[in-house]
Write a structure and sequence with these properties.
Layout: E1 4-8, H1 16-23, E2 29-32, E3 41-45, E4 48-52, E5 65-68, E6 73-74, H2 76-90, E7 97-100, E8 104-105, H3 108-121, H4 133-141, H5 154-175, H6 184-198, E9 202-203, H7 205-214, E10 219-222, H8 249-253, H9 257-260, E11 264-270, E12 273-275, H10 288-297, E13 309-311, E14 313-314, H11 315-325, E15 329-333, E16 343-352, E17 355-357, H12 364-367, E18 371-378, H13 395-408, E19 411-416, E20 424-426
Parallel strand pairs: 1-10, 1-11, 2-5, 2-10, 5-7, 6-8, 7-9, 11-15, 14-16, 15-19
Antiparallel strand pairs: 3-4, 12-13, 16-17, 16-18, 19-20
Helix pairs in contact: 3-4, 3-5
């Protein structure tokens, strides 16, 4: 079996964690390649719910090697908390969890700067999770960041930490007018104490993955957030701070493009669309249908608890995601949420200034003026939750799938019909 990329093809929260959990048994390595603790994968196993923000979902399976690569920014406190939450399943982490020595670290001052920046923007705020992810990536590209490898050299680490904290203090006090109270020595000591607990897991993950692929090992790459939140290709500036599409895999892992290019790509999409945070959302519903989608789909953020904005499936955006990711197959999640709608709509194009457009625009000024052009389908009013036999799928649901395939040019390969591990069915495995 080839390696596989699983990524979100909407604005995140598509149910990627469950899909990675389902497919992980078929792979040797499960790899997280971007983002930070601003992302959350929720996996339900029996009556136990696991919310993973940094650790790949493969940690819930025995015998899998889980890799957090250089493209991920890591809060040590949150990583340790998460490790504790899955310890009963994973046991000892050595040989199971590998952390890139090149990963950048999220510090408390990044969270302070994140909060101050959002507050200063007022109505133009991005709607971040306030986890410090954006400022950590900013430090990375400003060359003032601190990497895991730096912590193996305490004097060097302290020098860089002092410089970074002086800069954060200047920004806090002189730009935002807020008192900066973090103590250098306290943060230095606390960081090294935390690092000591994970130091044996820190390694050259670029080399690890290169060797694995050369040895014919099967690697599953899991993305966080979704394509429409990609910092380059998404609805900028209402995006995350990393490449959440397949375009981020090479720089996020240190694996050569010719090796990544051999992998298949599955895009995960809900049967409708949700979005957390600010920004244009052409198919957003603010009526009873939107409320029904939120309540039926339990649409509240796994990281923040915030209610998600909900709308009908946007095939203009999904068509765009299929193109830039080179998606080989679509996995449609939460099909069961649509079970009891009389009519179901899918957006097949936008209307902008009296003209029909079928390609997703880069300009947010254009996007916010776009009106969805819908194709209306008959609902199936039958229970599909837990459906395992594809032959039992209602005819109207088949029509829904057919429209998705025709409009995106990508095959639907799997349906997820509920939150449990067992609630899914293959449609056409490619």
């Amino acid at each position: 079996m080839e390696s596989l990329i699983i990524l979100g093809s909407q604005w995140g929260d598509e149910g990627k964690g469950k899909i990675v959990d389902l497919l992980a048994p078929e792979y040797d390595y499960v790899v997280r390649y971007q983002g930070g603790s601003n992302a959350g994968h929720t996996v339900i196993v029996g009556n136990k719910k696991y919310t993973l923000h940094l650790i790949p979902s493969g940690i819930l399976h025995q015998g899998k090697k889980n890799v957090i690569t250089n493209g991920v920014v890591i809060s040590l406190e949150e990583l340790l908390k998460e490790m504790e939450s899955v310890k009963e399943v994973s046991g000892d982490f050595e040989g199971k969890l590998f952390i890139s020595e090149r990963s950048h670290i999220v510090f408390p001052y990044h969270k302070i700067l994140d909060s101050l920046s959002e507050k200063s923007k007022g109505k133009d705020k991005v709607g971040t999770t306030l986890k410090g992810i954006g400022p950590a990536y900013m430090a990375k590209y400003a060359r003032t960041g601190i990497r895991m490898v730096d912590l193996f050299d305490p004097p060097y680490f302290k020098h860089r930490l002092e410089n970074a904290m002086n800069e954060a203090k200047e920004i806090s006090e002189k730009i935002y007018g807020e008192k900066f109270t973090l103590d250098l020595n306290q943060l230095y000591d606390e960081t090294l104490r935390n690092f000591e607990k994970i130091a044996p897991l820190v390694t050259d993950t670029s080399l690890l993955l290169h060797n694995a692929l050369m040895d014919g090992k099967k690697v599953l790459f899991e993305g966080a957030q979704g394509t429409m939140l990609d910092v380059d290709m998404g609805t900028y500036p209402y995006v995350t701070s990393s490449n959440a599409s397949a375009l981020g895999i090479c720089n996020g892992t240190g694996v050569a493009p010719k090796h990544i290019g051999k992998a298949k790509v599955y895009g995960v999409s809900k049967a409708y669309v949700t979005r957390v945070g600010e920004g244009p959302f052409p198919t957003e519903l603010k009526d009873g249908d939107g409320i029904k989608l939120r309540e039926e789909g339990h649409e509240f953020g796994s990281t923040t608890g915030r209610p998600r904005r909900c709308g009908w499936l946007d095939l203009v955006a999904l068509r765009f995601a299929c193109r830039i990711n080179g998606i080989d197959g679509l996995i449609i999640t939460k099909l069961d949420v649509l079970d009891h709608f009389d009519k179901i709509k899918v957006c097949v194009a936008y209307e902008y200034e009296g003209k029909e457009i079928r390609d997703f625009p880069a300009s947010l000024k254009i996007l916010e003026k776009c009106k969805p052009i819908y194709k209306e389908l008959k609902g199936w009013d039958k229970n599909t939750q837990g459906l395992k036999d594809i032959n039992e799928l209602p005819e109207e649901a088949w029509e829904f799938i057919k429209v998705i395939e025709e409009e995106t040019g990508s095959k639907v390969v799997m349906l997820s019909t509920g939150p449990e591990r067992t609630e899914y069915t293959w449609v056409d495995k490619v």
